[in-house]
Design a protein that fits this description.
The structure holds 2 protein chains of 2 kinds. Chain A is an alpha+beta fold. Chain A is built from 3 helices and 9 strands, in the order H-H-H-E-E-E-E-E-E-E-E-E. In chain A, the strands form 2 sheets. In chain A, strands 1, 3, 5, 6, 8 and 9 form a 6-stranded mixed sheet that branches. In chain A, helix 1 packs across helix 2. Classes of the chains: A alpha+beta, B mainly beta. At the A-B interface, strand 6 and strand 7 of A face strand 5 and strand 6 of B.
Chain lengths: ~160, ~110
């Protein structure tokens, strides 16, 4: 655990160095940081893969994410995602993907729903390594994709080290 | 594998048309593969990667689980009560081992 905290402090310092534009040294640091954690680009690429490249409608109001603003313990962060859908056989939510932009791996969980769910609302608990954005993407039965994004502050990371 | 049996919360009775909230919890370490042991060697990944729910034999809900889901995975979802029947819940881990539990619901 101590080692873990040290590692995180190290990463923060690298991020600071990068921000201050300290040349080659900072660049090396950034390289290490990006191999350890996913970036928003990785998360976007993953969503693209899972949704078959369908262009998403961001913040269309269809998807809502319930998350604590500050997660004291990154090892268990409760999340509830609900999607506005009648859940009939003709118009329902097929998948809900939850993606963490700053974790070592962006994927968190993918729910596969059917019309017999009646209501498109799912809940779970996840691990978060650091303060980051959480993206929820809902794939509807007609192939359209709706996404939403929410930031969560993590006091103690929960991904191990 | 899970030492304790998984827990599921399914109402015994429901009225037709009700939206029933089903909650599940299973005890599992969900080893991410990122952690290291005291010798500094990586602890191999071992997580539950699949959760499936069948109602009277037909798949009604499933989830693909990745390493970012917390230890002792909790998953909750809804089910529209249309007919009486049995839910079958199955969790499968990276080694292909699975744990299953069932629960009955009477719909009037």
């Amino acid at each position: 655990m101590n080692k873990n905290i040290l590692n995180m402090a190290e990463m923060d310092r690298r991020a600071l160095l990068k921000a201050a534009g300290m040349g080659a040294l900072a660049l090396t640091g950034a390289g290490i940081a990006s191999s350890a954690n996913a970036t928003p680009e990785d998360a976007a690429a993953y969503i693209n893969k899972m949704t078959g490249g369908a262009s998403g409608t961001a913040n269309s109001g269809k998807v809502s994410i319930k998350l604590p603003e500050i997660a004291e313990n990154g090892a268990t962060v409760p999340i509830t995602v609900s999607v506005d859908s009648p859940m009939t056989s003709g118009d329902h939510v097929k998948h809900i993907h939850i993606v963490a932009e700053g974790n070592p791996n962006p994927e968190v969980i993918s729910f596969n729903l059917t019309p017999s769910n009646g209501k498109a609302e799912v809940a779970t608990r996840m691990r978060l390594g650091k303060t980051q954005n959480i993206v929820a993407a809902a794939v509807m039965s007609d192939g359209t994709v709706h996404t939403n994004l929410k930031n969560v502050k993590v006091t103690i990371g929960g991904c191990g080290g | 594998m899970a030492v304790k049996p998984p827990r599921v919360k399914v109402p015994k009775k429901a009225t037709k048309g009700d939206l029933v909230n089903i909650k599940t919890l299973i005890s599992h370490k969900m080893e991410t593969g990122n952690r290291k042991d005291k010798k500094g060697e990586k602890i191999p990944r071992l997580i539950l990667n699949k959760f499936e729910v069948k109602f009277n034999g037909a798949e009604v809900f499933s989830a693909d689980i990745y390493t970012a889901v917390s230890a002792n995975p909790y998953i909750a979802f809804f089910h529209k009560a249309e007919a009486s029947g049995t839910f079958n819940f199955t969790w499968t881990d990276d080694k292909g081992k699975s744990v299953a539990i069932s629960a009955d619901m009477a719909v009037s």
